[in-house]
Amino acid sequence: MDRKMNICVLFGGQSPEHEVSCRSAVSVIENLDKRKYNITTIGITKDGEWFLYTGGWDKIFSGEWRQDAGNLKKAIISPDAKEKAILVFEDDTFKKIIPDVVFPVLHGQYGEDGTIQGLLELANMKYVGTGVLASAVGMDKAYAKIIFKNAGIPQANWIVVQTFQFENMDKIVDEAEKEIGYPCFVKPANTGSSVGIGKAKNRSELIAALENASKFDRKILIEENIEGREVECSVLGNEHPRAAEIGEIIPTTEFYDYDAKYKDNSTKLEIPAVLDEEIKEKIREYSVRAFRAIDGMGLTRVDFFVKNKDNSIILNEVNTMPGFTSISMYPKLWEAAGLKYSDLLDELIGLALHRKK
Question: What DSSP character marks residue 165?
Fold first, then answer.
């Protein structure tokens, strides 16, 4: 392509990870090569309004973009497959923006769960990241568990409960105590960035964690606690995915929750992780296997535990649109593998352009 490509970055969204998306988007925008790309930014508010935003990127990072009225125009993606257009409205008229690639830097509900991917498929637009199925399965921890079990990837023991079952809370807790034991983790099935996750050491804490998780999802996992090191691996590719370096997270909090990920500067990232090469290679193998199991495309970050007692590897979860902030593991792991942030973005855009329908 001789001309500069038109890249549309989507940011914000309706999920609890709205702020993380804004930070990720700014990092992506700053690292996109301006000699290669014209960049359009579309912001989605927490209420689900869409706007073309033409103001400063610093206001995206701070969250002030929504108040920057002079740089906001209502916009939507047209689902008309022949248009392949973003429609931007002003007064009684509209103009069309035709992106070559859409980069949905959106995390969580309505961004990472297949919904925005479905809209982009309807609109016949090329986009960065996994498709509808992989996004939906990767987002839903309960269904992902089933997929990974069938793929032969070791996982922690778990049970799934739904909020309508809360009318018989004693039965839920009795089953959890019998099948899982304490301590255990409680996770909303469809959140990321550790939103809504709690650790329970006894019956009362388990009930409190279930009630808190129910604020974020109607489907909740109760999962075995794994004593081990938290490690992550980045996967990149379409039909021929490859895995990057392995990184270890060393939080100073009891577990790697939302605050530890995005607010606590004391959390340490060890890149590369200090592990035997044989263990690293097995983690890479499991990462690619998990990516293929969900029919991944583009990118995914795969999270694991390495057990303290025997160094066995346990898959925790996948993230099909992982964080892209300045402190996020996904780009850092590729940098450690020799792929600069800007080159990583080039490759992701190339994978979007060449992905087969």
Answer: G
Give 104's contacts (C-beta < 8 A, 6+ positions apart). Answer: 10, 111, 116, 117, 120, 127, 128, 129, 321
Contacts 24+ apart (CB under 8 A), 278-287: 279/306, 279/311, 279/313, 280/246, 282/313, 283/231, 283/233, 283/243, 283/246, 283/313, 284/233, 284/243, 284/246, 285/243, 286/153, 286/313, 286/315, 287/233, 287/235, 287/243
How big, in percent rounded to 5, are the helix, strand and coil portions of the chain? 35, 30, 35
User: pLDDT tens-digit profile of 128-184?
Assistant: 999 999 999 999 999 999 999 999 999 999 999 999 999 999 999 999 999 999 999
Residue ranges covered by each domain of the chain: 5-127, 138-153+227-354, 158-224
Which class is 138-153+227-354 in CATH?
alpha beta
- What CATH number is given for 158-224 in this structure? 3.30.1490.20
Report the predicted TM-score, pTM, of the whole model to 2 decimal places. 0.90
- The DSSP string of 62-113 is HTGGGG-GGGEEEEEE---TTT--EEEEETTEEEEE--SEEEE---STTTTS
CATH number of this structure's domain 5-127, picked from the four choices 3.30.365.10, 3.40.50.20, 3.40.50.1240, 2.40.40.20:
3.40.50.20
Alpha-carbon gap, residue 97 to 321, rounded angstroms: 24
